[in-house]
Design goal:
This protein is mainly α and about 600 residues long. Among the domains are: about 60 residues, no CATH class; about 60 residues, no CATH class. It is about 45% helix and about 10% strand. The chain is built from 21 helices and 17 strands. The strands form seven sheets. It has a three-stranded antiparallel beta sheet with strand order 1-7-8. A three-stranded antiparallel beta sheet has the order 4-5-6. A hairpin with a 2-residue loop joins strand 7 and strand 8. Helix 9 runs parallel beside helix 11, helix 11 runs antiparallel to helix 12 and helix 15 runs antiparallel to helix 16. The longest helix is centred in the C-terminal third of the chain and has 25 residues. The chain is globular. The two termini are about 35 Å apart.
Length: about 600
């Protein structure tokens, strides 16, 4: 088997297939080939992205979190600040500025993070959205009202100064207010916002949701893709591409065809970015398959985690350092930063350590499931707008991806889809909730495949925990591993299972929703806060591990909780020990947790 990067394969393949089926036309060729999907420009800031100021401030460890410095605002033009720092360092032994002088320098030339925002309360927020009336348990209904109130706390409007003087900020200007995740995350984030927007739509905050989507469309028109988050140091990496699904959620809520028509060019442009910059061709037994990966070709430490990346790479050759830093950025692009899922040790297994991160060498099941769902969604948008020829193109793309996923990722014996390693030309067979992402995306050819996946989940050992499905069964110390459970992964599992026709799958979906809601509710009762992640052990315990302390707020947690309360509100309960179908007790399987 061979593989290669695929910068233009999708365009060529589309054209060939179009000719084969006799629907070739100039306009459709232009649709796919005249999209500007060039590699995004690097962040060129010598303060926020690279250079001696960044290096000396971060390595001096003046702040508990490296992100703090790169979120600070400049008080003077960058050239003035750089000149002042050059003068300061030239007067210092070995050009190294002391911590005391660095602190003084920062006080002269920087403001603390957060000064880029103006006071703002979402004008479309109101007290009693209708979905609250569907929640029968009074304690859960009261809690849902409190979650609904959190949108006001998480709403941010970027000040006009960022638009007028972008050189003074790391914040990327967007024209509409945003709902941020919370905590250290003082800017919009890409895939988080899918669940935020779904929650806003339930809260009947349609204008706020519309503004957030417009921001993402604005970013695609500026960069050709959506950056990881709203900071210039994120300009070379994205996150899982949920923008088409955000637009789908908004259209389902409003039926606004004019909005859909206006959004579609940017959605197609983003799709082409992924196909031209994040895809590989695999030739197996004479057949070519195209699948996608996360891949960020920037061999420098992440500015927001600068010292972590420097220290992790100590002792490596220059080439190995650059490769590690690229793969760490790709891990951040995946949203799973970080996880044993991306580790490939010397034996080719993903049971190594963070230094073994090789994200770009893995074809992820969930990314490809998401792109399959994107292709189906784009086809449906074209049909809604009366363009059957363009719809057929995206239908064909989804069919080809389905063939590729079943050839490379599906394991019929185990009954799930597994990440594929380009280094070992084999599947990684460890459990991750992402192994069932094609069920969520409805991206499989035979109904029995989804039912097999249900049995795989029940036999995996991942259902033995009372407070959610863990992100893996491997305790690596990283935050996207055991014992943490993350809101988007819970929701994707539950949504996928709930749409299957079998009563068994639907009962399991409800039981997982009950576990998750009770975990979130108990934690809120203890801490009066929603957290970004939770521990599957014990009742009401936030998650931990990784590069920073667990954050509260929290955008996607709120959105997932509101969606589950809307879907199952008539039967969910805050009472202890409630089980609807017996799937929670006894424990389904007992498997050892791998300690690292």
């Amino acid at each position: 088997m061979t593989w290669r990067r695929c910068p233009d394969c999708s365009v060529l393949r589309f054209q060939t297939r179009m000719q084969d089926v006799g629907v070739f036309s100039l306009s459709l060729t232009l649709l796919l080939t005249c999209v500007n999907s060039a590699v995004p420009p690097p962040c060129d800031s010598e303060i926020y992205c690279s250079g001696p100021v960044l290096h000396q401030v971060q390595t001096a460890k003046l702040f508990d979190d490296d992100k703090y410095f790169v979120d600070m605002k400049l008080k003077a033009h960058p050239d003035v600040v750089l000149s002042a720092f050059h003068n300061l360092s030239s007067q210092s032994p070995n050009m190294t500025v002391s911590s005391e002088n660095l602190r003084h320098f920062l006080s002269l030339y920087f403001d603390k993070p957060g000064t880029e925002f103006e006071p703002w309360t979402p004008p479309d927020w109101h007290d009693k959205p209708q979905f609250l009336g569907k929640i029968k348990d009074q304690q859960l209904q009261t809690w849902a009202e409190k979650i609904h109130h959190l949108w006001k706390l998480l709403g941010k409007k970027i000040g006009a100064g960022v638009k007028d003087h972008p050189e003074l900020y790391s914040q990327i200007y967007t024209p509409h207010p945003v709902i941020v995740p919370g905590g250290r995350f003082r800017e919009l984030y890409y895939w988080d916002s899918y669940w935020v927007i779904n929650g806003l739509l339930l809260s009947e905050m349609t204008d706020t949701a519309h503004g957030m989507i417009q921001n993402f469309l604005h970013l695609v028109n500026r960069y050709g893709f959506v950056p990881n988050g709203g900071r210039i140091y994120y300009e070379r990496r994205s996150q899982p591409p949920f923008l088409s699904l955000m637009v789908e959620s908004y259209y389902q809520a409003t039926k606004d065809k004019d909005f859909l028509r206006a959004a579609l060019p940017a959605l197609q442009r983003e799709y082409q970015f992924w196909m031209q910059n994040r895809s590989v061709v695999l030739r197996v037994n004479g057949t070519e398959h195209v699948l996608n990966n996360f891949d960020v070709q920037v061999g420098l430490p992440r500015p927001e985690s600068y010292t972590d990346d420097l220290e992790l790479a100590e002792g490596l050759t220059d080439g190995s350092k650059e490769q590690l830093w690229m793969d760490l950025k790709a891990g951040a692009e995946s949203g799973w930063d970080f996880s044993s899922r991306w580790f490939i040790n010397s034996d080719g297994h993903n049971s190594g350590v963070l230094r073994d991160t090789r994200t770009s060498q893995i074809l992820p099941a969930d990314l490809n499931a998401l792109l399959c769902r994107n292709e189906k969604t784009l086809a449906s948008f074209h049909r809604i707008l009366g363009d059957g020829d363009s719809a057929a193109l995206y239908d064909q793309a989804a069919e080809r991806r389905l063939e590729a996923m079943e050839a490379m990722l599906w394991d019929a014996e185990r009954g799930a889809w597994f990440d594929y390693s380009l280094m070992t030309h084999s599947k990684h067979l460890e459990f991750y909730p992402s192994n069932l992402a094609p069920v969520w995306a409805a991206c499989y050819s035979q109904p029995e495949m989804a039912e097999k996946a249900v049995q795989y989940l029940k036999g995996s050992g991942a259902l033995q925990f009372p407070n959610g499905v863990p992100t893996s069964l491997h305790q690596s110390g990283q935050q996207w591993d055991y014992p943490n459970a993350w809101p988007p992964l819970q929701h994707m599992l539950i949504e996928g299972l709930s749409k299957l026709p079998s009563e068994d799958a639907q009962n399991l979906a409800f039981d997982l929703a009950q576990r998750w809601i009770r975990t979130n509710w108990l934690t809120y009762m203890k801490y009066e806060a929603m957290f970004e992640k939770y521990d599957v052990n014990g009742d009401g315990k936030p998650g931990g591990g990784g590069e920073y302390e667990v954050q509260l707020g929290f955008g996607w947690t709120n959105g997932v909780a509101l969606q589950l309360l809307d879907q199952y509100g008539s039967t969910l309960t805050s009472a202890s020990g409630h089980v609807s179908s017996g799937l929670l007790l006894p424990l389904v399987f007992s498997v050892p947790i791998m300690l690292q």
